[in-house]
Each structure stands twice: as structure tokens, then as C-alpha cells.
Amino acid sequence: MKKQILLENDPFYISSRIKEVDENYFFVFNSKEKRFELHNSAQKGSTFALVVPYEVLDERAIFLARKTRKENIDKLVREMDEENRRREERLKKQAFEQMREVIYES
User: Which pLDDT value is given to residue 75?
Assistant: First the structure.
């Protein structure tokens, strides 16, 4: 059994529509890992680009491919930093509330 199956036809034409993002992109189904993967034939070394984090191959995979392109790295890092900042603030707030509850229960 092949470990990676090249996807050339699918119900939503995702495998052909990904070429609009980058002509070197292609999807495979990794049968060993039971997951979809995005590959780029122009990459040196390995063609592997990312794991599609969804159980079905649909429009979200194209959106993810666009979002994670090298040209968008600065924006993606800013978004990740902002999300991390929000999470940290939320955790601090929760810790403060827990401490407050302990203090007032005593």
C-alpha cells in the first residue's frame, strides 16, 4: 500500500484550486498517518509544507495555504503574538480571580 496518495480529483476541486495559490502546491493523503498534507514541488529537500488539520479536504485547506505562505509570515507572526498576549492576559485575570476568592474565603 502506498504511504502517500496524490490527490488529483476531489468533489470540491480543492486539489486543482490549490494551484491558484501556488502552481507548485499539491495535496496528498498520507495513508499511514491518516491525514491530508500540502506539498510544494518547488521546495528544496522535502516537498512537505504542512499538515491539513481537518478530517476532510475542503475550502479551509486553501485558506490555510494562503495564510501560511512565506509572503504572509510577518502578518502571521503578529497574529500569533497578539493571540499569545490575549491568552496571557486571560490567564493572569483568572489567576487573580482565584487568588481573590481564596483570600476572601479565609
Answer: 82
At 1, is the pLDDT very low, low, confident or very high (cuts 50, 70, 90)?
low
Q: How far apart are the first and last CA of the chain?
A: 65
Greatest CA separation found in the chain? 66
Residue 65's region, left for phi above 0, alpha for psi from -120 to 50, else beta, is: alpha
CA–CA distances in Å: residue 105 to residues 91, 92, 93, 98, 100: 21, 20, 18, 11, 8
Phi, psi of 88 (to 5 degrees): -60, -45
SS3 53: coil
Residue-wise pLDDT tens digits, 19-35: 999 999 999 999 999 99
